[in-house]
Amino acid sequence: MLKMKLHIRLAEKRLTQKELAQITGIRLATISGYCNDNFKMISKEHLEILCKFFKCKISDLLEYEED
C-alpha cells in the first residue's frame, strides 16, 4: 500500500492544507485526500509540483508498506 507523507511536510513548513492549495493550485479536496491517505491515484503533475515546492524527492512524499 502506498502512503503519502504530505501531512509531515506540511507540519515541517507549518502550513495548512488550505494554504498549500492556494500556493500550488492543487484543489483543497485533492490535498486533503493525499493527507488522509484517501486517494486512488496520484497525478504526476501534482507530484512534480509538490516536490518542487518542498524541494524534496518523491520518496520524501511517498512510502510503500506491505499489507
From TrEMBL:
Q: Which InterPro entries match?
A: Cro/C1-type_HTH, Lambda_DNA-bd_dom_sf
Name by which UniProt lists this protein:
Helix-turn-helix protein
Tell me the ranges covered by the HTH cro/C1-type domain, including all copies.
12-61
**Organismal lineage:** Bacteria, Bacillati, Bacillota, Clostridia, Eubacteriales
The record's annotation in Pfam families points to: HTH_26
Superkingdom field: Bacteria
> From the UniProt record, which GO molecular function terms apply?
DNA binding
